[in-house]
Amino acid sequence: MKNFSTVGARLLALALLSGSTAASAQTPQSSQAACAFRPNAPDQHVVTRGDTLWDISGTFLEKPWCWPQVWGMNRDEIANPHWIYPGQIVYFDRAAGRLRLANQVGAGNDGSGQGTFKLSPQLRTEGLGKDAVKSIPAGAIEPFLTQPLIIEADELKNAPRIIATAENHVFIGKDDKAYVRGNLNGATSFQVFRPGKPLLDPVTKKTVGTEAFYLGTLKLQREAAPGSDVHTFIVASAKEEMGVGDQLMQMPPTPMQNYVPHPPEAKVDARVLAIYNGVTHAGQNQVVSINRGKLDGLDIGAVLQLYHKGQTVRDPGASRGWHNLGNPQVKLPDEEVGSLFIFRVFKHISYGLIMQVTEPVVVGDVAKTPE
């Protein structure tokens, strides 16, 4: 159960509370067909601490990301999810082709040993969220929610920047002083970034952005005096050493931590731009960036299929007239290797978490709308 990552947990009790049916999901027939149950799907699963909804759904479904459909939920219900908890039971209603949530309240008398299931429309509110089944494992994506930053065009062109340090230190760390020049727009807490290498589109070979390196945070100690635009800051936290020339961005709001998987609204055909930390291959639970974003139809929770792009090879038989195909250059089919869950979206670039990968992912691999 731990070899899958997950998505969006909070929705299960709500399906029962609202009395949703297969019709309420309003799911196209083709999507229903894509959300097939595994031939060896169990009758039930007891939710345990450490489970994720992707884990649980992967026990029952061929494609774990399409779990909202087999819970019979519509978009309004998905937008207002509730939590499920360890100890609750997910069981497979084979007659209805649906998953349901229940509590086991006693042992049965039929000799099956399966016990009695009681559907629970009441929502658990005590300690809401404390013990709940989580979305994607927090440790896998939390640093990417607010720290690594995609810079598109000239977004940091006019950002405040460190122009000097106390006692002219080359680098500064926690509790050190920094002098910053620029418009703070009333903010007092900032993150510090250093622009990194350009991100090149694997198809066009053009620069589409830059991934900045997160260095730490600064807290305003004293705003610039009248007639000056130099502010005094103290380093509140330091992940890496920072110094003159590094740039500031206002601390973002705490991001929403619940994610609901769904296919993109529009057809997406993307390529892997980069693998974080500069490695050449990425595996399960690693983060990559792709060359499509919100202006291309992606949003948080979108799921894409990952493929190794098929090579173009020469068919020696074609040049001799075999098969009457003529062109000796042939592109091999793209080979599916896993899925990608989008959790942070910029204008033309997005971060995705690799899920269920069967082979390492490399820059240039294809990420597109599930078929």
TrEMBL record:
Top-level taxonomy: Bacteria, Pseudomonadati, Pseudomonadota, Betaproteobacteria, Burkholderiales
Annotated signal peptide: 1-25
Any one Pfam family match given in the protein's UniProt record, by short name: LysM
The name this protein goes by in its record: LysM peptidoglycan-binding domain-containing protein
Keyword Cell cycle appears in the UniProt entry: no
Keywords assigned: Signal
Domain of life: Bacteria
Keyword Lipid metabolism: no
CDD domains xrefs: LysM
InterPro entries: Bact_Kbp, LysM, LysM_dom_sf
Segments forming domain LysM: 43-92
